[in-house]
Design a protein that fits this description.
Helix content is 41%, strand content 13%. With 247 residues, it is an alpha/beta fold. The protein has two domains: 156 residues, SPOUT methyltransferase, trefoil knot domain (Alpha/beta knot, 3-Layer(aba) Sandwich); 64 residues. Helix 1 links the parallel strand 1 and strand 2.
Length: 247
Amino acid sequence: MEEEPEYGFPDVVIVLVGPEEPGNVGFAVRAMANFSVSRLRIVGEDIRNDQFAQIFAVRASEILDRAEIYPDLESALHDVEAAWAATARKGSNHSVTRAVIPLEELPDPKSLPATVALVFGRESVGLMNEELALCDLAFSIPTSLEYPSMNLSHAITVTLYELYRKYAEKPLRRPTDLRPATKQEREQVAIFFDDLVEQTRIKDFRKPIVKQVFRNLLNRAYMSGREIATLTGTVRKIADLVDKDEK
């Protein structure tokens, strides 16, 4: 008998960094239940038993009760394949330090073989630069220029609605021989590319920008293990040629 396909988002985890209002966490949990997301991680204080968090979670309190607590964002992302951070700072075409894309351009989280984290920051100041740097890409929600900052639970609701509308009815990707590249493999080719950049005649002040652009491209691309292996080998051979030329 053919196995029934799974729907929803079993491999998506919501990560809340330093939430300041327990009530907002309760509302966020309700939004998660609305859109078939059941995994929650909280960075900072353990507010699972706070009365306001529990009251506003209503019948979705089980998600809150099962939430995992972490001391910092790095540890909260220890086992995720990709981390996508919500930010109100949209940047511009002249900024390459962080790849910020519109919410509607987020890919299907079910296209990756492991956990995908949606990261949301503090109600007052959002995510710090060093926290954004831990994420693979950042996305922004279209809002009024006069008032761009959204309430935490509202931002989570809009984000999950968009993903649910586009992807929830699609079955989870079946295992195939085409193995997706891991985060470690993507980082390894980025390290080799960094070494290559250091060997070139690119001006020193531009080198960090070039390195970040390459990482942005890697983080936005779906690559197979074979593709990343080919890219890694190519970058290493180019680096060897540049090294010989320099000598």
